[in-house]
Design brief:
mainly alpha, Preprotein translocase SecY subunit, three-stranded antiparallel beta sheet, 16 helices, about 5% strand
Length: about 450
């Protein structure tokens, strides 16, 4: 019997699922592009009656949260990711347990996550205004700002569902990549003069201007930022391509087999999105509460730009200590969320063994038994989960410390997101172009 709470969860507003079993490449591409354009347009719609003077302090944090502070989407993906973090922690700790092996359990998990996202949209909209993060101008009711924030939050939540069901990847990943790409483009190429300076905002024009003006320190800073950014791209692409391949054979067809890839970054970018968003939310509410991040716990949640400090000659031992603590927090958080994500997203050994068996495959040299295959996979998946979490946390931390042109964590996430999007688009296009390949993949 379905409880009243389950009825609520199963009847929350949602984007309709496609009627087709497999959404075509063209349809996915269309909805991905439409949603991306809508995201940029909403970022240009200012909050009516909001005081623009307080927006600048949130610029850096907005990159990770996929937000445009002062616009209709000031909340960004914050409520969605916060709901996911809380639910991951509750489920992983056993305080709340979901049976993710059943369809009802999965629907219940998704329903609770959406209900929590709605709660955080309402809560964050109120708290932003209540503590002065977003102030109303004279003569404008704060309630009007809250209503606009709630509207923007719901639009982002629905757009995330559109991408998940009708497009490529997920809306959360796409919005982060879009925000970081926009920020990177501006900070690399913009010819607009920085406020209070004769040099451009963009690193490339500023580099040439600094060289022409005989400003070696500024030229060094711009060059270091460019080199750090390019290095992050190259390292992440290399690590993203690493995987462990397990040989599998078709049980009924002798002599034929495939290699089942397990990526080195097994849980991909999800853990670092969660820990980065958690840290960004803590910093955000800390700043709105009146702590500017220069002292207390917030200073240990921010990455010191060590290379920039070395070039300027103002680096101190405390900055190295802050860098180590920052790295440890990112790495620890990424490992924790990696383990939780494996259990809640169907990436655990049992789920993978079931997928392999359902595909008609088996491990050569072992009898066809799901429990045997699960134990074999366990030897690989657990170490990859921990090592992948450590690696992605370390890469994100080093990227932030290196002084890249925009958020180092954001660049890392963007490269991984675009790489995965490319793989997904290429695979979908190949299957649509080749019916035999689609039949082979069982689609």
């Amino acid at each position: 019997m379905v409880s009243a709470f389950d009825k609520l969860l199963f009847n929350l507003p949602e984007v309709e699922h496609p009627k087709e079993k497999k959404v075509s490449f063209k349809v996915k591409l269309k909805w991905t592009l439409i949603t991306l354009v809508a995201f940029f347009v909403l970022g240009l719609v200012p909050l009516f009656g909001a005081d623009a003077s307080v927006m600048q302090q949130f610029e850096y944090l907005s990159i990770i949260l996929g937000a445009q502070f002062g616009s209709l989407i000031s909340l960004g993906i914050g409520p969605i990711v916060t709901a996911s973090i809380v639910l991951q922690l509750l489920n992983g700790s056993g305080i709340v347990k979901f049976d993710l092996t059943s369809e009802t359990g999965k629907k219940r998990f998704q329903g609770v996550q959406k209900l929590m996202a709605i709660f955080f949209i309402l809560f964050e909209a109120w708290i932003y205004v209540a503590v002065g993060g977003l102030k109303a101008t004279a003569g404008v009711s704060p309630l009007l700002i809250i209503i606009q924030l709630i509207l923007g939050g719901f639009l982002i939540m629905m757009m995330d569902e559109v991408i998940t069901k009708w497009g490529f990847g997920s809306g959360i990943s796409l919005f982060i990549a879009a925000n970081v790409s926009q920020s990177l483009f501006i900070r690399a190429l913009s010819f607009v003069k920085a406020q209070g300076s004769e040099f451009s905002v963009g690193a490339i024009p500023a580099l040439f201007q600094a060289l022409a003006a005989n400003e070696p320190t500024l030229a060094g800073l711009m060059l270091a930022g460019l080199i750090s950014t390019v290095a992050i791209f190259l390292v992440v692409v290399y690590v993203q391509s690493m995987n462990v391949e397990l040989p599998l054979s078709y049980g009924r067809v002798r002599g034929y087999g495939i290699r089942w890839p397990l990526k080195f970054l097994y849980t991909s970018n999800i853990p670092v999105i969660l820990i980065a968003a958690l840290m960004a939310n803590i910093q955000l509410f800390g700043r709105m509460a009146g702590n500017n991040g220069s002292g207390g716990i917030l200073s240990w949640l921010q990455a010191p730009r060590l290379i920039e400090m070395m070039i300027k000659g103002n680096v101190a031992p405390v900055h190295f200590a802050q860098a180590i603590v920052y790295l440890l927090i990112l790495i620890g958080g990424a490992v924790l969320f990696s383990m939780f994500w494996v259990q809640t997203s169907g990436l655990d050994a049992r789920s993978q063994a079931k997928n392999i068996m359902n595909s008609g495959l088996q491990m050569p040299g072992f009898r066809r038994d799901e429990r045997v295959l699960e134990r074999v996979l366990e030897r690989y998946i657990k170490p990859l989960t921990v090592m992948g979490g450590i690696s992605v946390g370390l890469l994100a931390g080093l990227a932030d410390i290196s002084g890249a042109l925009t958020s180092g964590t954001g660049i890392l996430l963007t490269v991984m997101i675009i790489y995965q999007l490319y793989e997904q688009v290429a695979r979908q296009h190949m299957m649509d172009m080749n019916p035999a390949m689609r039949k082979f993949m069982g689609k």
